Amino acid sequence: MRWLFAVLGVAATVAISGCAVEAPPTPTQAANAVTLAAANAVTLTKEKDGRFLVLTGPRLRHAEPFLGIASTNFYLLRSFVDARTGETLHQLYVEDSYPGAERNWNAARLAAGGTLRFIAISKNEITCEVGCSYAEEFAASLPEPLLRANPQGFTVVFNTRSGIERTITVPGNLVAKQLAAIAQLRATPPTAAAAVSPAASAPPR
């Protein structure tokens, strides 16, 4: 399992400056440091009985949490790696929760020019008791050369049929973390992902 912890990057490193340390961190401080490290790490999970390995980057916000719910209005990078063939698909994933009319996101492009393949994942009605609100999940497919050619980051613009736009700026550190995790996974491929069902379906493309 050592390769797993290397990919997750959960191990914490503490840099100490100066010649003396007055006191070691309290248990609460240590726990907070580990939590912060985990929140900023790329995590590894398995899907389809181990057929696909999923590297999920840290979450960043594109808007305030909807109704104060932390698991709303965020975006992240994620990569699906076929454990048998090594084929890798990358996405910019977005969760968008909002009140009012349905937005129905349906297109994505690079702000610098160029169309990206849009992936509709889900749309759910949250409530319509006093006006309606919805939660949509969608993504833009990212070619790996795009990630490697933009170490400084890049910007993606999502559109709805009605003309609403959502601009997502992916910072360079997010790109660097994702590429580093992919390189680590490729350098130390897991052996436990063999013997998977050939009927497993592919991730959303």
Characteristic key phrases:
globular, single chain, 7-stranded antiparallel β-sheet, alpha+beta, 205 residues, disordered N terminus, 4-stranded antiparallel β-sheet
Itemize the secondary structure elements and their pairings.
Blueprint: H1 2-8, H2 27-39, E1 43-47, E2 52-56, E3 60-61, E4 74-82, E5 88-99, E6 105-110, E7 115-116, E8 118-127, E9 133-142, H3 144-149, E10 153-160, E11 165-171, H4 172-187
Antiparallel strand pairs: 1-2, 2-4, 3-4, 4-5, 5-9, 6-7, 6-10, 8-9, 10-11
Detailed description of the structure:
The two termini are 29 Å apart. 19% of the residues are buried. The chain has one domain. The chain contains four helices and eleven strands. The chain has helices at 2-8, 27-39, 144-149, 172-187; strands at residues 43-47, 52-56, 60-61, 74-82, 88-99, 105-110, 115-116, 118-127, 133-142, 153-160, 165-171. Strands 1, 2, 3, 4, 5, 8 and 9 form a seven-stranded antiparallel beta sheet that branches. A four-stranded antiparallel beta sheet has the order 7-6-10-11. β1 and β2 form a beta hairpin. By secondary structure, the protein is α+β, with helices and mostly antiparallel strands. Mean pLDDT is 79; it is low at 1-23, 27-37 and 191-201.
Structural class: alpha+beta
Q: What is the end-to-end distance?
A: 29 Å
Order of helices and strands: HHEEEEEEEEEHEEH
Which whole number gives the mean pLDDT?
Answer: 79
Please state the CA-atom Rg, rounded to the nearest Å.
Answer: 19 Å
Q: What does the overall shape look like?
A: globular
Runs in which pLDDT lies below 50 for 5 or more consecutive residues are 1-23, 27-37, 191-201
Give the count of helical stretches: 4
Main sheet? Answer: 7 strands, antiparallel
Helix content: 10-25%
Note the beta-strand portion.
35-45%
